[in-house]
Design a protein that fits this description.
heterotrimer, A mainly alpha (about 300), B alpha/beta (about 260), C alpha/beta (about 400), A: about 300 residues, mainly alpha, ABC transporter involved in vitamin B12 uptake, BtuC, two-stranded antiparallel sheet, 10 helices, globular, B: about 260 residues, alpha/beta, Rossmann fold, four-stranded antiparallel beta sheet, 10 strands, about 25% strand, binds adenosine-5'-triphosphate, binds magnesium ion
Chain lengths: ~300, ~260, ~400
């Protein structure tokens, strides 16, 4: 094959790789973005909620596989909603027991952010204490099939991950811009004080925000577990941090920004690893992101916002 | 039975008694003024009635129902609506959306009903937009429907905030210094608007205002407070000539 | 005076409570374990502890360990180094200064063993790492030994094996550049392979950093490079992800691993994807005989798990320490005994371990053979070929 063809194949292949890898960042970044957008709270526990999502998916899937001769795709179809609901419950619990009391007492946002960090550490170490340090293998629910388009290889899983990420973005974008709860979320983010005067309970809106963010983190966790099937309690920490950075670079508070930021980070990471020595990956990737923020401190899609309190 | 019945309400902020033994009874369709010097506790009274604060002592009843323990959003659904001293519009949402948020509250706020877009939901959505437009038209604001409040002149923003407060179909409308920051031309417009609203809608209006012109030309009766306590009550003319009021406003030595 | 009367029974109790162990302290041999009980590779720590407990109970139940005609009870002290370099150093220091052990077994992985070896050597306490294959662990450290062969040895073994077995002329490597063990192995393999097939025969030499989960960019390059084999000198918890992703990107050729593949529950994590691949090992539990078989059977019965090479090497490492103690004798003076043990260990000849016969060179490294193991269709690590230096 001519050299040009090989290069093209490699670019195409790496584009697919980047789309898959960026999908996880995007799905997690969406959750950061939702909570930040509504509460101006950086929910640093979010990466660990995603880890919890992966573990919940693991237990639900292994339980279902063990308890009846269900075919893999049925197990998957049942695992998805159960995982989303249970993980959402975890997210809402965090809101209820950790963030809401502080908000009620009028604590400075800094304390809430630190609380979020601590919640993340508690989730990680709680998992460690509960389940031990051993890694776990996620069962293969659907056989991974490899398709070849010339030299470019595609798997059903890869396609599914990318489609789910894009679908989730569209759903969230619709909820936020078109539905009444979405409108309430936006209103809450601009002025929390005025919302109850329209008869809308702010707590319900906040809980709904956590439900959305956590259930999409669960989806990310499940898909991640299927794609990289070794789970450990710290799996959420680094990915969570990076997704948060992605959300900021995209313009935190903007759904489109978080989505684009996640894919951007995925692309930069993969392309650097592909065409430059992979040792430089994070160095170059984050230098690029830093440069973007330097050029546009509000992020790609963000607009400067002045909050009068 | 009074629409709003406030009895011996006291609000303590640490060592500061912002409201002390305040009482008022507002009847249906009344237009009543609440005046007093800066820091007298007027806004605090509004915050108490709308549920943002829980009174340290005393009771508040709306439509004969005690509101103690109710959250602001709950009080709102009973039919209490208000505006703010410093306008609190959602500046990054269009004027129309600002109004639509309020209309939404009249639907149930279930978790899932709102995220699944059934045909019924779409119909409701259409109704809401139409209703919101009607509210805007009534106040002559429809040409601003797609504008962002932050880009509108101050007087228009005031009007939008009043429109938003009206859009939940309140029984009691509380206006906190609606004339603050308006120029003379806007002022006459505002007086006309409030008068018109009072005539057109079946509501009671309770208004905090420093601008005597507004209070005197609109209010049927006026209550004056200082240091959280009522110092005078009566018709505009009675109040104008009350020495206690003059003293409260101008200080001791001018008497 | 009366006020302090209550102190008398307390002091008496203390005397009773602490007296006997103090008296018996002379009849105890204290050995420290600096192992990875938590962190990235907890399976390794668990296997080490299991093997140690098994050996200890065996000896103590038979009345103790005989040194110069006197029976000693074995006392093992386990310190968790959390699979972190810093913690491994502090664990070594604690064992030496606070617990006053005669010798230390562990750490297992080179990342911990290299810095811990430094600490042990400085404090003049013999240390033997059963599993660390990085040369730096023992280099210029008279007090530090190892129970297994070395990275420089695994590199040529794999290079030799793939050349003979697959007639490979082009090879690819994927390794973690931030970790001593894989980095060392990758470089030694590269040197050996290039020596056989000339410069440029390593057609892809790709890296990632610890905790990475996605290797698609590197593997895309490797698949396109035309390599005939892929060498992945990584730990058991990273291997499944690499192999799965390689497969998904169209890699169908053999994959070679390193001894760390056997360090934990590889098959549990990897499933079918790892079957048919190879790695060099210190021992194979399929087809064992004699004392090795006895160890495997007893261990399996005790822990419901077949012992991996970590367990077997740890068992041997403790054996080496005990053999050296027997040879050196005990005076009861910790510092003096430690040095005597170190000297005896460096001169051990043909110690009959369950992982093979070991002879130590004065530099602390043993001379022994490697086994190339194939992961068969039942997911068992099957003896395939023995490659000797
Ligand atoms: N949340 C609060 N915590 C503590 N003190 C408060 C709080 N809200 C109001 N106050 C105090 O209560 C007093 C009354 O304030 P309030 O805002 O009700 O006055 P006002 O009559 O509305 O004045 P203005 O004409 O300036 O609007 C002031 O001294 C104010 O500082
Ligand atoms: Mg006020």
């Amino acid at each position: 094959m001519p050299w040009g063809g090989a290069l093209l194949a490699s670019i195409l292949q790496n584009t697919l790789n980047a789309l898959q890898w960026g999908s996880f960042y995007s799905l997690i970044a969406l959750g950061y973005c939702l909570v930040y957008g509504v509460l101006l709270l950086i929910n640093f526990a979010h990466g660990d909620v995603y880890m919890v999502g992966a573990y919940i998916a693991f237990f639900v899937a292994t339980f279902l596989l063990a308890s009846g001769g269900l075919p893999g795709w049925v197990v998957l179809a049942v695992t998805v909603p159960i995982t989303m609901v249970l993980t959402a419950a975890v997210g809402v619990t965090l809101e209820r027991v950790a963030y809401r009391p502080l908000r009620r007492k009028g604590a400075h946002r800094l304390y809430v952010v630190v609380t979020a960090l601590m919640c993340g550490i508690i989730l990680e170490n709680g998992n460690l204490a509960l389940l031990g340090a051993a890694s776990r293998a996620f069962p293969e629910l659907v056989t991974t099939t490899v398709f070849s388009l010339g030299d470019v290889k595609l798997t059903n899983l890869k396609v599914a991950v990318i489609v789910v990420a894009i679908g989730s973005f569209l759903i969230l974008e619709t909820i936020v811009s078109r539905t009444k709860i979405g409108m309430a979320m936006r209103a809450l983010s601009y002025d929390r004080f005025a919302l109850p005067l329209m008869g809308i309970p702010p707590d319900t809106v906040i809980v709904f925000t956590f439900v959305l963010g956590s259930s999409f983190a669960a989806l990310a966790g499940l898909l991640f577990a299927m794609s990289y099937p070794v789970l450990d309690p710290y799996m959420g920490a680094m990915v969570g941090w990076k997704a948060f950075i992605a959300a900021v670079v995209g313009g935190i508070g903007e759904i489109r920004g978080a989505f684009a930021g996640g894919f951007l980070l995925g692309f930069v990471e993969i392309m650097v690893a592909a065409f430059l020595p992979s040792t430089f990956r994070d160095l170059i990737a984050f230098t690029i992101l830093l440069f973007i923020l330097w050029m546009k401190p509000t992020g790609l899609f963000g607009v400067a916002r002045f909050q009068k309190i | 039975m009074a629409l709003l019945d406030v009895k011996d309400v006291t609000q303590q902020f640490g060592g500061l008694r912002a409201v002390s033994s305040f009482s008022v009874a507002l009847e249906e369709r009344e237009l009543v003024g609440l005046i007093g010097p800066n820091g007298a506790g007027k806004t605090t009274i509004f915050n108490l009635v709308s549920g943002f604060y829980q009174p340290t002592m005393g009771t508040i009843r709306f439509k004969d129902q005690p509101t103690a323990g109710l959250k602001p959003n709950h009080v709102t659904t009973l039919g209490v609506s208000r505006t703010f001293q410093n306008i609190r519009l959602w500046n990054d949402m269009t004027v129309l959306d600002n109004i639509r948020v309020a209309h939404h509250s009249q639907l149930s706020y279930g978790f899932f009903g709102c995220s699944f877009r059934s045909a019924r939901y779409r119909d409701q959505e259409k109704d809401i937009t139409a209703n919101a437009m009607k509210t805007l038209e009534a106040l002559d604001l429809d040409q601003y429907a797609d504008e962002f409040p932050k880009n509108l002149p101050y007087g228009t923003r005031r009007k939008v905030e009043i429109a938003r407060a009206l859009s939940i179909h309140p029984r009691l409308l509380m206006l906190d210094e609606p004339a603050a920051g308006l120029n003379t031309a806007d002022l006459t417009g505002l007086i006309d608007l409030i008068g018109w609203i009072h005539k057109e809608f079946p509501i009671t209006i309770w208004m905090i205002e420093h601008q005597m012109q507004v209070v005197m030309s609109l209010c049927q009766r006026i209550q004056v407070i200082d240091f959280g306590a009522t110092i005078a009550e009566g018709t505009p003319t009675e109040i104008q000539n009350n020495p206690a009021v003059i003293k409260a406003y101008l200080g001791d030595d001018t008497i | 005076m009366k006020r302090y009367a209550w102190l008398i029974p307390v002091l008496l109790l203390a005397l009773i409570g602490f007296g006997p162990p103090l008296a018996a302290a002379e009849d105890v041999i204290k050995i420290g374990f600096n192992i990875e009980l938590t962190g990235d590779i907890p399976d390794v720590g668990e296997a080490s502890k299991n093997a140690a407990e098994y050996l200890k109970n065996q000896i103590n139940n038979a009345g103790g360990f005989d040194v110069g005609g006197k029976k000693y009870k074995l006392q093992f002290i386990y310190e968790d180094n959390e699979a972190k370099a810093e913690s491994a150093v502090s664990a070594a220091q604690k064992l030496i200064t606070q617990d006053e052990v005669l010798a230390i077994v562990g750490p297992q992985a080179s990342k911990q063993a290299v810095p811990a070896g430094e600490a042990a050597n400085n404090l003049e306490t013999p240390m033997i790492s059963p599993w660390s294959t990085n040369p730096n662990t023992t280099k210029d450290r008279p007090y530090v030994f190892r129970g297994c062969f070395l990275d420089p040895f695994q590199g040529p073994v794999v290079a030799k094996f793939v050349t003979e077995e697959f007639k490979a002329k082009k090879a690819a490597v994927l390794y973690d550049i931030a970790s001593d063990y894989p980095k060392g192995l990758a470089e030694f393999f590269k040197a050996a392979f290039e020596q056989m097939h000339g410069a440029g025969s390593i057609v892809a030499f790709e890296t990632f950093t610890t905790k990475d989960k996605d290797f698609s960019a590197q593997l895309t390059k490797i698949v396109a490079s035309g390599a005939e084999i892929l060498f992945v000198p990584q730990y058991y918890n990273e291997v499944p992800m690499i192999i799965k992703q390689a497969k998904q990107l169209g890699w169908t050729k053999p994959i070679m691993g390193a001894d760390a593949w056997a360090g934990g529950d590889l098959m549990g994590l990897c499933g079918d994807d790892c079957k048919g691949h190879f790695f060099p090992a210190h021992y194979s539990n399929v087809g064992a005989k004699g004392e090795t078989k006895q160890f495997i059977d007893n261990y399996t019965e005790l822990y419901k798990k077949t012992p991996d090479d970590v367990a077997a090497l740890t068992y041997d490492a403790i054996g080496v320490v005990l053999a050296a103690i027997k040879q050196a004798g005990l005076t009861g003076k910790v510092k003096k005994d430690r040095t005597a043990i170190m000297e005896a260990m460096g001169k051990l000849k043909d110690y009959p371990g369950i992982t093979g016969t070991m002879t130590f060179k004065p530099d602390g490294d043993p001379i022994k053979c490697a086994v190339v193991v194939k992961i068969n269709n039942e997911g068992k690590f099957e003896f395939y070929k023995s490659v000797c230096p």
